[in-house]
């Protein structure tokens, strides 16, 4: 079987895999469909297209089964919602359970139950029911979580259509039983049971809705039919401690708290200690001892037309794609020859490099990671080694080293550059993917809204969007794009407080793009200064009002006859160039040439000015009424 060279997981959970023989595999964001692109033979023409096989994941043939399984495991390891096809999962990894597992309960913070420390220093925290466990290694930079998840099911339209009626029937059943039971919905509600025998069973019959039944040890309980078994499988996910998902924050705080008891923290680096304290404080305040388990996506995608494929039409383009990330999406995880690159896009683009020996490289600074800090633990001891490397002055590689420091940081810098270009791109549609369009997983912030638009005379036009993206179009044809946090007001002494990214993108009139450091813009300082001053004025005047009323972001101009006449002049120029006026004048001359009576130019001018003024004023009033109607309808 062909081995993988690199695998890329993007922010929309789509996967690209490159193999040793040059073939590629692309997985849709939902995982329900894949495209395998074979490498052309050596004797093929350079412009000959590759052979492509596009199939549904659930019905994959045996030729691509193993490759697809490894690609799915890579996707599910860091995806928000896993895709688990029963036909692909090996039989030894399947497990049949009689109930629906929607959530798991973890031990309390003060109790040390279900917590152990392994020989290699890894702390393992197991849920009370044994359906999930979390492993935190000694380095405390990343952690793995294993949980049981039901395999992907077919989408039943009747469930969605009759969900409201079913909810009413469930409410009546709960009132009749006299017990409050919350279970069986797709929203991940809590399952509650006590020692008196109260329990919940969820059964789903063929062609019918999900039915929830509650029974207790009291008299008058109804007999229940035998529940059907559900197929589950263990899912392994790996996350960074600095970007932990919400459902795993509490078990992670338990592992960090238990590690604090087992080992002394006097020699632990400040970065990890701060991360541990922050994570623990959040979990202790919320007291969230129950974690909702991630559910698997449907077997078939409801919107397959949103699947985007990146095709290689020639051998030259294939070689270019191996060195660049051409897919227009932020990168989440990269696996390259046994080395893992994990990115975080919360505030600034940061990256972590895991060579595989327990050490980690972390990017520092907002300027594409100009510095990388190396963390490692000396073998057999708790002493930590910490070094900082500059990208512009890297040391030579040591003979016999397990990895090349230069190649690691070079690859990480290229990934950061790609993510910076995507974040500064105006192609907003990269936020749209198929699994976000499902009603139950709908994201209201898929497409950004235009929050503010202003025109500054002799400078240009400035636009601000709800995804913290600011776009400026200057009068000389140069455009500038940067990220600015519009929700935070600027304070005195903090000039760049709202700046999310240390880079901006300049697009010149000839179409060429260039990334510029905001703090060191050089000859383009005037463009950067103009945009930053406009952003500061926007946040100081009241960013909350701008975010609350996006409908009022249209450019407000006072009504005047001059502005309306300019619009009419543009329309007349288009009308004259189209030749319509010549055709109308010729037809009038043919029919009414004998009845034409010329008037004086002064009389015509007075009449035309009055008519134009009245007509333009009425038109302006109508447009204002339309704007008010649209703003009220949006509210």
Number of helices: 12
Overall outline: globular
Strand content: 15-25%
How many β-strands, per DSSP? 27
Q: What is the rounded Rg?
A: 31 Å
Structural class: alpha+beta
Strand neighbour order, sheet with most strands: 5-4-3-2-1-16-17-18-19-20-21
Major sheet attributes: 11 strands, antiparallel
Could you give the distance between the termini? Answer: 57 Å
Tell me the domain tally.
Answer: 5
Instruction: Give the helix level as a range of percent.
Output: 25-40%
Low-confidence stretches are: 157-171, 173-226, 265-286, 490-495, 543-559, 592-601
Mean pLDDT: 74
Give an overview in words.
- The protein has five domains: 1-83 and 297-327 and 425-442, POLO box domain (Arylsulfatase, C-terminal domain, 2-Layer Sandwich); 99-257 and 268-290, no CATH class; 329-419, Arylsulfatase, C-terminal domain (2-Layer Sandwich); 448-553, Arylsulfatase, C-terminal domain (2-Layer Sandwich); 561-587 and 600-634, no CATH class.
- It is an alpha+beta fold and 635 residues long.
- Residues 157-171, 173-226, 265-286, 490-495, 543-559 and 592-601 have low confidence and may be disordered.
- It contains twelve helices and 27 strands.
- It has helices at 65-76, 157-161, 163-177, 249-262, 270-286, 315-323, 405-423, 525-541, 543-548, 561-578, 580-592, 601-634, and strands spanning 4-10, 15-19, 24-27, 33-37, 52-56, 94-97, 103-105, 115-117, 123-126, 132-136, 142-150, 199-204, 210-215, 230-240, 290-292, 331-336, 339-344, 350-354, 360-364, 371-377, 384-390, 450-456, 460-465, 469-474, 479-483, 503-507, 513-517.
- Helix 4 crosses helix 5 (270-286).
- The radius of gyration is 31 Å and the shape is globular.
- A hairpin with a 3-residue loop joins strand 22 and strand 23.
- The strands form five sheets. Strands 5-4-3-2-1-16-17-18-19-20-21 form an eleven-stranded antiparallel beta sheet, sandwiched between helices. Strands 6-14-11-10-9-8 form a six-stranded antiparallel beta sheet, with helices on one face.
């Amino acid at each position: 079987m062909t081995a993988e060279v690199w695998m890329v997981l993007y922010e929309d959970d789509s996967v690209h895999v490159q193999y040793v023989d040059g073939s590629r595999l692309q997985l849709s964001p939902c995982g329900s469909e894949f495209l395998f692109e074979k490498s052309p033979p050596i004797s093929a023409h350079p412009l000959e297209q590759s052979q492509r096989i596009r199939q549904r994941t659930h019905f994959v043939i045996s030729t691509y089964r193993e490759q697809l399984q490894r690609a799915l495991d890579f996707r599910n390891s860091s995806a928000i919602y896993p895709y688990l096809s029963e036909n692909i999962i090996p039989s030894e990894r399947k497990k049949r359970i009689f109930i629906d597992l929607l959530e798991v309960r973890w031990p309390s913070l003060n109790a040390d139950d279900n917590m152990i420390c392994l020989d290699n220093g890894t702390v393992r925290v197991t849920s009370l029911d044994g359906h999930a466990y979390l492993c935190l290694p000694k380095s405390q930079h990343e952690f793995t979580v294993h949980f049981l998840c039901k395999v992907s099911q077919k989408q039943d339209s009747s469930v969605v259509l009759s969900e409201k009626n079913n909810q009413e029937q469930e409410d009546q059943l709960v009132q009749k039983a006299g017990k409050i039971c919350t279970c069986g919905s797709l929203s991940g509600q809590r399952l509650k049971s006590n020692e008196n025998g109260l329990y919940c069973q969820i059964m789903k019959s063929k062609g019918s809705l999900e039915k929830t039944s509650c029974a207790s040890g009291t008299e008058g309980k109804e007999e229940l039919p035998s529940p059907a078994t559900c197929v589950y499988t263990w899912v392994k996910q790996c996350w960074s401690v600095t970007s932990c998902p919400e459902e795993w924050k509490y078990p992670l705080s338990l592992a960090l708290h238990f590690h604090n008891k087992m080992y002394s923290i006097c020699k632990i680096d400040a970065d990890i200690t701060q991360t541990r304290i922050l994570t623990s404080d959040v979990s202790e305040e919320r007291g969230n001892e129950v974690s909702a388990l991630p559910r698997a996506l449907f077997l078939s995608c409801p919107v397959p037309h949103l699947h985007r494929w990146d095709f290689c039409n020639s051998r030259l383009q294939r070689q270019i794609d191996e060195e660049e990330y051409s897919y227009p999406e932020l990168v989440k995880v990269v696996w390259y020859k046994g080395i893992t690159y994990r990115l975080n896009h919360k505030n600034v683009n940061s990256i972590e490099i895991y060579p595989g020996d327990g050490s980690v490289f972390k990017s520092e600074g907002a300027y594409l990671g100009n510095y990388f800090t190396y963390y490692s633990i000396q073998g057999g001891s708790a002493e930590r080694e910490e070094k900082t490397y500059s990208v512009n002055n890297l040391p030579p590689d040591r003979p016999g080293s397990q990895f090349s420091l230069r190649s690691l940081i070079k690859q990480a810098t290229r990934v950061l550059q790609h993510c910076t270009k995507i974040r500064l791109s105006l192609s907003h549609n990269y936020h749209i993917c198929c699994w976000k369009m499902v009603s139950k997983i709908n994201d209201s912030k898929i497409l950004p809204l235009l929050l503010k638009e202003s025109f500054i005379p002799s400078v240009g036009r400035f636009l601000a969007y709800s995804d913290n993206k600011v776009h400026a179009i200057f009068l000389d044809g140069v455009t500038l794009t940067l990220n600015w946090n519009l929700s935070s007001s600027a304070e005195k002494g903090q000039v760049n407080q709202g700046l999310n990214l240390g880079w901006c993108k300049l697009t010149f009139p000839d179409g060429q793009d260039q990334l510029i450091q905001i703090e060191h813009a050089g000859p383009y300082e005037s463009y950067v200064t103009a945009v930053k001053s406009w952003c500061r004025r926007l946040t100081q005047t009241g960013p909350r009002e701008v975010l609350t009323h996006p409908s009022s972001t249209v450019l407000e101009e006072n009504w005047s006859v001059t502005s309306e006449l300019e619009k009419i002049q543009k329309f007349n120029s288009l009308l004259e160039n189209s030749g319509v006026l010549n055709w109308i004048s010729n037809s009038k001359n043919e029919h009414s040439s004998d009845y034409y009576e010329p008037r004086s130019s002064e009389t015509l001018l007075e009449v035309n000015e009055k008519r134009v003024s009245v007509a333009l004023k009425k038109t302006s009033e109508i447009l204002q009424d339309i704007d008010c109607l649209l703003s009220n309808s949006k509210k």
